[in-house]
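=== RUN LOG ===
request id: a7f3
mode: sequence -> structure
chains: 1
length: 59
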Amino acid sequence: MKRLARFFVNVKKEMKKVRWLSKKELSKYSIATIFFVVVFMGFFALSDALLSVLRMVIK
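=== RESULT ===
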């Protein structure tokens, strides 16, 4: 039981060391992440479509 209590005390200490993002930083990074996800989604969708057409042409 002491080990469990010590674990949670250590978790609390470590959580105090964490640097949390501000709202401005969070929104900036979220927008950047969504942008790159959409860009890569478009890239892979286009690649998939082109490869499907190429496969039909070759058959």
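=== NOTES ===
The CA atoms of residues 5 and 11 lie 10 Å apart.
DSSP finds two helices and no strands in the chain.
=== END ===
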